Queue: 2 jobs
Job 1
Amino acid sequence: AYGGPAGSVEVKETTKSWIFLTTTEVYKLKKPIRNHFQDLSTIAAREENTRREIKLNRRLAPDVYLGAVSLTLDVGGRLALEGHGVVVDWLVHIRRLPQERMLEQIIVSGAVSQTSIAELLATLAGQLTDFYRAVPRADITPEEYVALFAREQAENRKILTDKSFKFVRDRAVDLLAGFDKTLVANRGILEDRVRQNRVVEGHGDLRPEHVCLVDPPVVIDCLEFSRRLRFLDPFDELVFLGMECSAIGAPWINDFLINKIAAGLDDRPADKLLLVYEAYRAFLRARQSLAHLLVPNPREPEKWMPKARRYLDIAEQALVTLAN
């Protein structure tokens, strides 16, 4: 179907896509899912989503996202990429990046010195600074910004207190109540970020597995399906990236990137706000971990409960630090 030498093809499945990896390229095929965020049940909807993903990701990975590719079916029943038959689906065409240069792999492997990582992260900090300066400001009110946190907190509560998760439920109830109070107590500083024109349309899913430390670094796989969920404070997603790096053994990255980008943007939020963001992201990740166990035949079911507990540990520590 690839129309040329593809070498061996590795297939991976995610919650929302099938990923086909050839020797040098990647093809991403969207699943025909429908939920409260998006409806990809038609070919036209998947094409539109594919093109939007490419456009958004070219902001931080301009030469990685190669374009949208049609999948066609001819009268003989043969599939082809960019063929002459009927278009039956669309794929995101991506240049394959070296897996060993992904930030997650670099941290876990320990094969690259902290000095070398820091040099590339300094370049990344400059890129992100330019990115946050250039992207549109979020067209929401201060009240709407706070409502985003309240809405996600409600979704967190649905999953984290589900009767299926009795081993974390009681703890989650107490912690979520603590975060309710935190949101009320810090409503003003959250609203001020909008008033100060600091909330932007960002990447939305800034994690170490989405950062590739080639030269220059690139950031892939942004949150493409909801513009509203891309409305965020840059330091919200920087805290998220730092939290994820800390969880796999590189806690120094958090302060390193925040300090660099704060200087570049001439904007240093209070530590209290950073802790609010950390607790918020930890609850969100705990919820996402447990949500995998609520679907039929979950992939790797043994890993999600321990991950959820670790994220609840992070949320609790952030809340304790805030309280003190």
Note: The first strand starts at residue 10 and ends at 13.
Job 2
Amino acid sequence: MSLTAFAIVLFAAALHATWNAIVKGAGDTTLTTILVATSAGVLAVIALPFLPVPASASWPYLGVATVLQVTYFSLVAAAYRATEMSTAYPLMRGLPPLLVAVIGSVFLGERPSLGAWSGIALVCGGVLSLALHGRVGTGRRGVLLALANAAVIATYTLVDGTGVRLSGSPASYTLWLTMLTAVPLLLWVLGRRREEFIAFARRQWPLGVAGGIATTVSYGLALWAMTTAPIAMVAALRETSIVFGTIIAAFVLRERMTPRRLIATGLVVAGAIVLRLA
């Protein structure tokens, strides 16, 4: 992986942790998640007229990815209602890179080198140790929701990694996906919690816009990186977001930091370094 792609994916990871912290810290996680997705969708609508339409070969992947993204956003909100960010976030992000690496090597013909496998293992081990540590005193529902979302994340990573390569335009693919994802979420909330959502959006729109920008740019950069580097390596490096998420959880959300969390974070950083050198 080039130094440019490495730096860009790290920046994407920081943005990803930021918008997750916005969802966790804003109060109603469902309304905040949909506000973030809707804001991202509005930004996409504004930008899409200036971009080419994705190649026709990528549209089936866009269709599948839209369903997966709606499911993902729904599970993010549910997981953060059930447990702390410091438990749900590592669990949701720790398993997907390993699943992506294994499935990608079988079905996409991408076979990471021994060094890359070592980096992926370090990242996954560090992230999962945070999650397993956080299970103490955590409801089973929150853990199960996070595990379910991990499977969704691994699936849409492989789908989008393939789709964006066929699209001919990573930016256009990302924004179409963003817009298509926002529509069903917005329709659902307007049908079920219309007045509550409108009032919430009026109060919290700055957070929604900030989260919308963060999630769109974060995923767009990750998808671009997947056109220049193996999907498994990008997926693993992107999960260094847990480092940023841990810092935010400790210093912004005031969740407890322990020595074990610091050690696990160090493993993730070590894995990122190995991936850069692989």
Note: The chain has a mean pLDDT of 83.
